[in-house]
Design goal:
With 161 residues, the protein is α+β, with helices and mostly antiparallel strands. 52% of the residues lie in helices and 22% in strands.
Length: 161
């Protein structure tokens, strides 16, 4: 009976060690970092996922979301749109490293818009608020292509002035 007990304990310990290795080593082997953009409030959420389990999540304020708060826009329920995905660990050697989704340019466009608006020192606050409201409506209801065109148009106008 002692041999049978030793075998059972050995198998049990092997299973426990295997589970611990999977829990702690798999994020380094097979993990994905997904980022999402909140089209209603301008925040950025980053999730690190390994085998369907979220092991790290953060929500960050962006320059655009800070601008919305500064000008007193009310916070609406979040509408997270996928922006980017990146493979982490050894898995990045086997698969595509970065995937840019339909809304991949949106965080950059929102930051560019926020920077442009901050640089408009001579513009009255009411006019800044109107521009911000127009951009917010465009982000919530428009397509990523229209948003990018709008931001590029602002940059071209700023460069010509």
């Amino acid at each position: 009976m002692k041999t049978r007990t030793k075998i059972i304990v050995g198998v049990f310990l092997t299973v426990i060690v295997a589970v611990i290795v999977v829990v702690f080593a798999c994020p380094q082997v097979a993990a994905t970092r997904n980022s999402y953009f909140d089209t209603t409030n301008g925040r950025l959420k980053v999730q690190c996922v390994s085998f369907g389990r979220i092991y790290q999540e953060s929500v960050e304020e962006t320059e655009y979301s800070k601008l919305l708060k500064k000008f007193g826009f009310e916070e609406l329920p979040a509408d997270w749109k996928p922006a980017n995905s990146a493979e982490l660990g050894i898995r990045r050697l086997l698969e595509t490293q970065h995937v840019h989704h339909q809304y991949g340019k949106l965080p950059t466009d929102a930051t560019t818009f926020a920077d442009w608006l901050e640089l408009q020192e001579k513009m009255p606050q009411e006019e800044k608020r109107e521009h911000l409201n127009k951009f917010r409506t465009l982000v919530r209801e428009g397509t990523p292509e229209k948003i990018h065109e709008y931001v590029m148009g602002l940059q071209q106008n700023a460069a010509s002035n």
